[in-house]
Specification:
The protein is α/β, with parallel strands linked by helices. It is built from 11 helices and 8 strands. The strands form 2 sheets. It has a 5-stranded parallel sheet. Strands 1-3-2 form a 3-stranded antiparallel sheet.
Protein backbone atom coordinates (compact mmCIF):
# COMPACT_ATOMS: atom_id res chain seq x y z
CA UNK A 1 0.00 0.00 0.00
CA UNK A 2 1.44 3.43 -0.91
CA UNK A 3 2.59 5.47 2.09
CA UNK A 4 0.17 8.33 1.39
CA UNK A 5 -2.75 5.90 1.20
CA UNK A 6 -1.79 4.28 4.51
CA UNK A 7 -1.47 7.67 6.16
CA UNK A 8 -4.86 8.70 4.81
CA UNK A 9 -6.54 5.58 6.20
CA UNK A 10 -4.90 6.04 9.57
CA UNK A 11 -5.89 9.70 9.77
CA UNK A 12 -9.44 8.85 8.68
CA UNK A 13 -9.76 6.37 11.55
CA UNK A 14 -8.47 8.95 14.02
CA UNK A 15 -10.84 11.58 12.62
CA UNK A 16 -13.77 9.18 12.96
CA UNK A 17 -13.03 8.76 16.65
CA UNK A 18 -12.65 12.51 17.03
CA UNK A 19 -16.03 13.09 15.38
CA UNK A 20 -17.63 10.49 17.66
CA UNK A 21 -16.31 12.33 20.72
CA UNK A 22 -17.37 15.75 19.43
CA UNK A 23 -20.76 15.78 21.16
CA UNK A 24 -21.47 16.46 24.85
CA UNK A 25 -24.20 13.80 24.88
CA UNK A 26 -21.79 11.11 23.69
CA UNK A 27 -19.18 12.15 26.26
CA UNK A 28 -21.88 11.85 28.93
CA UNK A 29 -22.74 8.35 27.71
CA UNK A 30 -19.09 7.32 27.82
CA UNK A 31 -18.76 8.75 31.32
CA UNK A 32 -21.60 6.52 32.52
CA UNK A 33 -20.29 3.48 30.67
CA UNK A 34 -16.90 3.97 32.29
CA UNK A 35 -18.59 3.07 35.58
CA UNK A 36 -20.36 -0.10 34.46
CA UNK A 37 -22.25 -1.81 31.64
CA UNK A 38 -25.63 -0.18 31.01
CA UNK A 39 -28.76 -0.72 28.96
CA UNK A 40 -29.82 1.83 26.38
CA UNK A 41 -32.89 2.63 28.47
CA UNK A 42 -30.93 3.34 31.66
CA UNK A 43 -28.43 5.47 29.76
CA UNK A 44 -31.27 7.48 28.25
CA UNK A 45 -32.83 8.00 31.66
CA UNK A 46 -29.64 9.18 33.36
CA UNK A 47 -28.58 11.51 30.53
CA UNK A 48 -32.03 13.00 29.92
CA UNK A 49 -32.06 11.75 26.32
CA UNK A 50 -34.88 9.93 24.63
CA UNK A 51 -34.24 6.23 24.12
CA UNK A 52 -34.14 6.74 20.36
CA UNK A 53 -31.65 9.60 20.65
CA UNK A 54 -29.44 7.68 23.08
CA UNK A 55 -29.48 4.71 20.72
CA UNK A 56 -28.38 6.90 17.80
CA UNK A 57 -25.48 8.32 19.80
CA UNK A 58 -24.45 4.83 20.87
CA UNK A 59 -24.43 3.70 17.25
CA UNK A 60 -22.00 6.51 16.43
CA UNK A 61 -19.77 5.45 19.31
CA UNK A 62 -20.00 1.83 18.22
CA UNK A 63 -19.07 2.68 14.62
CA UNK A 64 -15.97 4.44 15.96
CA UNK A 65 -15.05 1.35 17.97
CA UNK A 66 -15.49 3.05 21.35
CA UNK A 67 -18.32 0.90 22.75
CA UNK A 68 -19.50 -2.67 22.34
CA UNK A 69 -23.09 -3.99 22.53
CA UNK A 70 -24.36 -7.16 24.19
CA UNK A 71 -27.87 -8.46 23.58
CA UNK A 72 -29.65 -9.97 26.59
CA UNK A 73 -33.26 -10.91 25.92
CA UNK A 74 -35.16 -7.83 24.83
CA UNK A 75 -32.48 -5.42 25.99
CA UNK A 76 -29.19 -4.26 24.52
CA UNK A 77 -26.39 -3.58 26.99
CA UNK A 78 -23.39 -1.42 26.17
CA UNK A 79 -19.90 -1.32 27.64
CA UNK A 80 -16.67 0.51 26.82
CA UNK A 81 -14.49 -1.18 24.21
CA UNK A 82 -11.57 -1.12 26.66
CA UNK A 83 -9.60 0.96 29.14
CA UNK A 84 -7.88 2.77 26.28
CA UNK A 85 -11.15 4.68 25.88
CA UNK A 86 -10.80 5.93 29.46
CA UNK A 87 -7.20 7.00 28.76
CA UNK A 88 -8.28 8.80 25.57
CA UNK A 89 -10.99 10.76 27.35
CA UNK A 90 -8.59 11.62 30.16
CA UNK A 91 -6.12 12.95 27.57
CA UNK A 92 -8.83 15.09 25.99
CA UNK A 93 -9.75 16.50 29.39
CA UNK A 94 -6.11 17.30 30.09
CA UNK A 95 -5.91 19.11 26.76
CA UNK A 96 -9.10 21.02 27.54
CA UNK A 97 -7.64 22.08 30.89
CA UNK A 98 -4.44 23.22 29.26
CA UNK A 99 -6.24 25.22 26.57
CA UNK A 100 -8.97 26.61 28.78
CA UNK A 101 -7.98 26.69 32.42
CA UNK A 102 -11.31 28.22 33.45
CA UNK A 103 -13.35 25.14 32.54
CA UNK A 104 -13.01 23.56 35.98
CA UNK A 105 -13.99 26.75 37.78
CA UNK A 106 -17.00 27.26 35.53
CA UNK A 107 -18.30 23.76 36.17
CA UNK A 108 -17.85 24.01 39.93
CA UNK A 109 -19.40 27.49 40.03
CA UNK A 110 -22.47 26.21 38.17
CA UNK A 111 -22.98 23.42 40.68
CA UNK A 112 -22.24 25.57 43.70
CA UNK A 113 -19.23 23.58 44.88
CA UNK A 114 -15.93 24.96 46.15
CA UNK A 115 -13.46 25.52 43.33
CA UNK A 116 -10.54 25.28 45.75
CA UNK A 117 -11.43 21.84 47.12
CA UNK A 118 -8.23 19.96 47.89
CA UNK A 119 -7.55 16.99 45.67
CA UNK A 120 -5.01 14.19 45.85
CA UNK A 121 -3.86 11.93 43.03
CA UNK A 122 -3.80 8.16 42.69
CA UNK A 123 -0.21 7.82 43.90
CA UNK A 124 -0.92 9.84 47.03
CA UNK A 125 -4.06 7.82 47.77
CA UNK A 126 -2.18 4.53 47.36
CA UNK A 127 0.49 5.75 49.75
CA UNK A 128 -2.08 6.76 52.36
CA UNK A 129 -3.95 3.48 51.97
CA UNK A 130 -0.74 1.53 52.55
CA UNK A 131 -0.22 3.52 55.75
CA UNK A 132 -3.92 3.06 56.65
CA UNK A 133 -4.31 6.79 57.11
CA UNK A 134 -7.61 7.32 55.30
CA UNK A 135 -11.10 5.97 54.83
CA UNK A 136 -12.17 5.98 51.18
CA UNK A 137 -15.75 6.91 50.30
CA UNK A 138 -17.38 6.00 46.98
CA UNK A 139 -19.98 8.71 46.37
CA UNK A 140 -21.45 7.22 43.18
CA UNK A 141 -24.85 5.47 42.99
CA UNK A 142 -24.94 2.04 44.65
CA UNK A 143 -25.29 0.23 41.30
CA UNK A 144 -21.99 1.66 40.12
CA UNK A 145 -20.29 0.78 43.41
CA UNK A 146 -21.54 -2.80 43.13
CA UNK A 147 -20.20 -3.09 39.59
CA UNK A 148 -16.70 -2.12 40.72
CA UNK A 149 -15.01 0.06 43.32
CA UNK A 150 -11.69 0.80 45.01
CA UNK A 151 -10.94 -2.04 47.46
CA UNK A 152 -12.09 -1.21 50.96
CA UNK A 153 -14.10 1.84 49.90
CA UNK A 154 -17.39 2.47 51.68
CA UNK A 155 -20.47 2.99 49.52
CA UNK A 156 -21.69 6.45 50.47
CA UNK A 157 -23.85 7.94 47.68
CA UNK A 158 -23.68 11.69 48.05
CA UNK A 159 -27.46 11.98 48.37
CA UNK A 160 -27.43 9.68 51.41
CA UNK A 161 -24.31 11.06 53.08
CA UNK A 162 -26.09 13.49 55.42
CA UNK A 163 -28.08 10.77 57.16
CA UNK A 164 -25.09 8.44 57.44
CA UNK A 165 -22.64 10.95 58.93
CA UNK A 166 -22.92 9.40 62.39
CA UNK A 167 -21.35 6.23 60.98
CA UNK A 168 -18.19 8.18 60.14
CA UNK A 169 -15.98 8.92 63.17
CA UNK A 170 -14.73 12.50 63.34
CA UNK A 171 -11.20 11.40 64.21
CA UNK A 172 -10.69 9.68 60.86
CA UNK A 173 -9.50 11.29 57.60
CA UNK A 174 -11.61 10.75 54.48
CA UNK A 175 -11.00 10.73 50.73
CA UNK A 176 -14.06 10.85 48.49
CA UNK A 177 -14.15 9.82 44.85
CA UNK A 178 -16.77 9.53 42.14
CA UNK A 179 -16.94 9.13 38.35
CA UNK A 180 -13.94 11.22 37.37
CA UNK A 181 -12.24 14.62 37.59
CA UNK A 182 -15.35 16.59 36.60
CA UNK A 183 -17.85 14.62 38.66
CA UNK A 184 -19.20 16.89 41.42
CA UNK A 185 -20.39 14.12 43.76
CA UNK A 186 -16.99 14.00 45.49
CA UNK A 187 -16.85 17.79 45.83
CA UNK A 188 -20.28 17.84 47.47
CA UNK A 189 -19.27 15.04 49.83
CA UNK A 190 -16.07 16.86 50.83
CA UNK A 191 -18.01 20.04 51.46
CA UNK A 192 -20.53 18.23 53.67
CA UNK A 193 -17.87 16.32 55.58
CA UNK A 194 -15.90 19.47 56.28
CA UNK A 195 -19.02 21.32 57.42
CA UNK A 196 -19.59 18.52 59.93
CA UNK A 197 -16.10 18.92 61.38
CA UNK A 198 -14.42 16.05 59.55
CA UNK A 199 -11.18 16.16 57.59
CA UNK A 200 -11.90 15.32 53.94
CA UNK A 201 -10.33 15.59 50.52
CA UNK A 202 -11.35 14.39 47.10
CA UNK A 203 -9.52 12.09 44.74
CA UNK A 204 -8.55 14.06 41.65
CA UNK A 205 -9.29 11.10 39.42
CA UNK A 206 -12.28 8.76 39.59
CA UNK A 207 -12.98 5.06 39.53
CA UNK A 208 -12.50 4.68 35.73
CA UNK A 209 -8.98 6.13 36.00
CA UNK A 210 -8.22 3.85 38.96
CA UNK A 211 -9.29 0.78 36.99
CA UNK A 212 -7.55 1.92 33.79
CA UNK A 213 -4.30 2.26 35.77
CA UNK A 214 -4.45 -1.50 36.39
CA UNK A 215 -5.12 -1.10 40.11
CA UNK A 216 -7.15 -3.75 41.99
CA UNK A 217 -10.94 -3.58 41.89
CA UNK A 218 -13.56 -5.03 44.21
CA UNK A 219 -17.11 -5.86 43.20
CA UNK A 220 -20.25 -6.11 45.28
CA UNK A 221 -22.29 -9.31 45.72
CA UNK A 222 -24.89 -8.04 43.26
CA UNK A 223 -22.42 -7.49 40.41
CA UNK A 224 -22.82 -9.54 37.25
Amino acid sequence: MPLDRARHLRDARIARIGQALAAPARLALLDLLAQRERTVESLARDTGLSTANASQHLQVLRAAGLVEPRKAGLFVHYRLAGDLVVHAIAALRALADDRRAAIDGEIRQEFGTPAAAEAIGLDELLDRLRRREVVVLDTRPVEEYEAGHIPGALSMPVGDLQRHLRRLPKRRRYVAYCRGPYCVYADRAVELLRQSGRHAERLLEGFPEWRAAGLPVERGPGAA
